[in-house]
Amino acid sequence: MEKEKRRIKSYVLRSGRMSAAQGRSYDALFPRYGMAFRGGFLEYPKIFGNANPVVIEIGFGMGTATAAIAQAHPERNYLAIEVHRPGIGRLLWEIERQGLENIRIIEGDGVAVLEEMIPADSAEGFHLFFPDPWPKKRHRKRRLVTRPFTNLLAEKLISSGYVYMVTDWRDYGEQALAELTATPGLTNAYAGFAPVQPGRPETKFERKGLEKQHQMYELFFNRK
Questions:
Q1: Measured between alpha carbons, how far is 79 from 150 in angstroms, rounded to an integer?
Q2: Is 132 a known active-site residue?
Q3: Which tens digits make up the pLDDT trace of 198-209?
Q4: Contact 69, 200 (CB under 8 A)
Q5: Is the full-model pTM beyond 0.85?
Q6: What is the radius of gyration, based on Cα positions, of the chain?
Q7: Catalytic residue among 121, 132, 168, 171
Q8: All domains of the chain, ordered by start, with CATH?
Q9: Do 166 and 218 form a contact (C-beta atoms < 8 A)?
Q10: Which terminus of the chain, N or C, has fewer Cβ atoms within 10 Å?
Q11: Rounded to the nearest 10 degrees, what angle do helices 110-117 and 149-156 cross at?
């Protein structure tokens, strides 16, 4: 309880309404493909029904990129974490529409989920695509990709695992580059920012950034 009081939230619960389709998908499919935050480490084979590697996405938005990646890589399992219920409903709709069996969703705060549900040395990778940039200087303490959170990412990765982050805010990209570089156990796969990684679909946030002529800043780190 004290930990919850001290933790700075890296998100704001938006009041966006669920569409009728999202609501139907949430009600019908969440019991099968989703779970609420709870204490206790997960056993991936029980959740997915197989022992395939697990990639974790933190903050998937509306989930269209998540679904596209999972569809392209049936040999991997994807654990998608989100707090916004309309996005969860939309991803559940995509799961049903595309017949995807390699996605499971956790509704909850990504930091708490990692701390209390994800075992150490268990994730093949982490995807953090366009996390909230918190552009105002007084709010930057809320940014997700900073220590000690990056230490937690390293702790949860397998020895050959990776962290893949994308942002369209240069100062956030530079800050994240410094924080990940200083994280024990992680090493940059490139000299500075990474090139666009093959197979990453364009997201809604990316399209909005490109419309504003924002540059994309990609980071790709491996666990040593």
A1: 18
A2: yes
A3: 989 887 777 777
A4: yes
A5: yes
A6: 17
A7: 132
A8: 25-223 (3.40.50.150)
A9: yes
A10: N
A11: 40
